[in-house]
Design brief:
The chain is an alpha/beta fold and about 210 residues long. It has seven helices and seven strands, in the order E-H-E-E-H-E-H-E-H-E-E-H-H-H. It has a five-stranded parallel sheet, sandwiched between helices. Strands 1-2 form a two-stranded parallel ribbon. Strand 1, helix 1 and strand 2 form a beta-alpha-beta unit. The longest helix has 19 residues.
């Protein structure tokens, strides 16, 4: 909120947030016009591939106590890679090309919606995730595998190692649903709505 107070509203027409749970708190300081997950660059979209044997499983994200609580046992039992920082651009693209399963864990023990979910789905990876809030149209058990605790995570990774393509249908459905987050679709629609909104309701910004 301290950073939100620094926003120069006279320099903006509309504000778009990637987190709808932020809207209510931000509204008195900087009213949010739309909320959408961060769109995924088109080059990260890939077809669903047959799983490697054994499957390649990874968690991409900084370390927190909550995340380590989930990961410590599964990393001990299986070859699960934890990429904590410094992965973006072409390096991230190459990692996703070789990956089969992406794990999504929240920073802290409360539900959220991390943008890595969209990224993994676009890359055709199976997503194992804690409960998402909001879901942005994704359905647990259909588009991704929901895990409720670290035993669920351990059990899911164990099953995937025994039967690498066990959740292939989920991978395919998740990849299809990822089209809703494709940048070349999201941004034109967003800009179109913005221009119409400005035409009808105008702006408080002083344009010279």
């Amino acid at each position: 909120l301290a950073e939100t107070r620094l926003i120069d509203r006279s320099n903006l027409d509309r504000i778009v947030s990637f987190d709808p749970l932020f809207v209510e708190a931000a509204d008195p300081l900087a009213p949010v016009w739309r909320s959408v997950p961060l769109p995924v660059d088109d080059r990260f979209f890939m077809p669903v591939r047959p799983s490697s044997v054994p499957p390649k499983v990874m968690f991409i994200g900084r370390s927190t106590d909550h995340r380590e609580y989930y990961l410590v046992e599964v990393k001990h039992r299986f070859d699960v890679v934890h990429m904590a920082h410094g992965v973006f651009g072409d390096r991230l693209l190459n990692l996703l090309r070789e990956l089969d399963v992406g794990i999504n864990l929240h920073n802290e023990p409360y539900p959220s919606f991390e943008n890595r979910v969209c990224l993994h789905l676009a890359a055709g990876n199976l997503v194992l995730s804690e409960s998402l809030s909001p879901t942005h149209g994704l359905e647990p058990g259909i588009d991704y595998v929901e895990i409720r605790d670290r035993d669920d995570l351990l059990r899911a990774v164990e099953q995937i190692h025994l039967y690498p393509d066990l959740y292939r249908r989920v991978r395919i459905r998740g990849r299809r649903k990822a089209e809703a987050f494709r940048a070349s679709r999201v941004f034109p629609r967003l800009v179109h709505d913005l221009l119409l909104d400005l035409e009808v309701f105008g702006t408080d910004r002083q344009v010279s």
